[in-house]
Design a protein that fits this description.
15 helices, single chain, eight-stranded mixed beta sheet, alpha/beta
């Protein structure tokens, strides 16, 4: 018994003296789970931090947008920027206020130009042929993309023109929707370019208003002359004065304009870098030339900038030739309302609804009217019916380029007198 007890004690001491070996297979799952939990906690903190910072950034930019004064003009895009919309019960009810808010926020967003430039630079660096809705064509010229508008917009625009014509049945109404380069010069686009068919929109709008207006379709004229005439600028979205001259000839025939003055074209600027160049970030193969057509006999007239209460004796503003946007030589840009009064021996008075394409064509119309009132619905907020009734217009001309009208939300409320 004593021997067994001794052996037992020895075995217990040996067992106690042996180092305890950890069972790693048992401990490893606990260790991994602990590491994963710790990593998730750290990741969750970062997500929460980034979320808070993002919300603060959005609210900060929104507050900054509201506090900073609105910018009137974008030099890089060569266009006027959207102002804060007028808040009325009707504008809230029909949704135009929210549409205006979206346009205002997009145009007045802080650092907007820097962000656009960064996006353009990245796209060009990756070899893109399209940047900021601008295509770089095979010959190096730039071309604005086109997107078909919604059926609702087309329907509402056509309905508003039809309603306007029915309210004023004694007016001679003309509708001229100018095709842009993407439909006239589509052969210049890079191979396999996917873009909406602008001709579908032109056909649909012209057909919709044909019953209440005389439609002036310039596509055949442009197709016949595009090989010999620069119809569009290489770096800008506008048509050239040469194209406007061709359009005036078509308008003269359709509108029965009597004056057939001869004109001499002269270049007033030969280093025009247009809006497509600055907006897209593409480089230019060559700059554009801006022309002015001078009639053989200058008609006498005055030009009134109605909202600014100032008057001048010329539609040309040569001081803009040295500015960032020389195209503003025509009228100095876009205004809500302009009034041209002439000394011509005629009873005809013309009301024009237009975008900036009209600016270089309007001087050709001056010799044929006693008065031309020019309304840009994007900036017009006065009572249209009162304007028409007080003047007694004989003719009305809608003159837009297809891209602008396809994106326009201002013409409809102006024609309905709901702005």
């Amino acid at each position: 018994m004593k021997k067994n007890s001794t052996i037992t004690q020895v075995n217990e001491r040996q067992a106690a003296s042996k180092p305890v070996t950890a069972n790693h297979s048992d401990m490893e799952p606990d260790s991994k789970q602990s590491g994963r939990k710790r990593f998730k906690r750290i990741l969750h903190r970062y997500y929460r931090l980034f979320g808070v910072l993002f919300v603060l950034l959005i609210f900060g930019l929104a507050i900054l947008t509201a506090l900073l004064p609105d910018q009137d003009y974008s030099a890089s895009e060569k266009r006027s920027l959207t102002k804060f919309p007028e808040l009325t019960l009707s504008s809230v009810a029909d949704g135009s206020f929210m549409d205006g808010m979206e346009d205002w926020a997009a145009d007045q967003f802080p650092l907007r130009n820097k962000l656009m430039q960064a996006k353009s630079s990245l796209s060009i660096g990756l070899g893109a042929i399209r940047s900021q809705d601008v295509y770089r064509c095979n010959d190096g010229s730039l071309m604005e993309a086109f997107s078909l508008p919604s059926d609702d917009l087309i329907t509402s625009q056509a309905a508003s023109i039809i309603d306007f014509a029915e309210r004023y049945p004694n007016k001679d109404i003309y509708f001229c929707l100018v095709p842009t380069a993407i439909s006239v010069l589509e052969e210049k686009l890079p191979a396999a370019t996917l873009t909406d068919d602008q001709n579908l929109y032109l056909d649909r709008m012209m057909s919709a208003v044909n019953s209440v207006s005389t439609v002036i379709d310039l596509r055949d004229t442009f197709a016949k002359n595009k090989s010999t005439t620069e119809l569009y600028y290489h770096t800008d979205h506008h048509w050239t004065t040469d194209a406007a001259y061709l359009a005036w000839k078509d308008l003269s025939d359709v509108m029965a304009l009597d004056s057939k003055l001869s004109y001499t074209a002269g270049i007033v600027c030969n280093d025009f870098a247009g809006s497509l160049l600055s907006a897209s970030g593409f480089s230019a193969n060559a700059y554009d030339a801006i022309k002015v057509y001078v009639p053989e006999e200058n008609p006498l007239y005055t030009l009134t900038y109605d909202t600014e209460k100032r008057m001048t004796a010329s539609v040309y503003c040569p001081e803009y030739l040295d500015s960032e946007d020389p195209y503003q030589i025509f009228f100095g840009g876009n205004y809500p309302k302009l009034t041209i009064r002439t000394a011509q021996d005629t009873d005809r008075k013309l009301l024009v609804f237009k975008d900036s394409y009209a600016n270089c064509l309007l001087p050709f119309l001056i010799p044929d009217f006693a008065q031309i009132t020019v309304i840009d619905p994007r900036y017009y907020y006065d009572d249209l019916d009162m304007e028409i009734q007080s003047v007694g217009y004989t003719d009305v001309l809608f003159l837009y380029n297809a891209n602008t009208l396809a994106e326009d939300s201002c013409l409809v409320p102006v024609l309905k007198n709901e702005q």
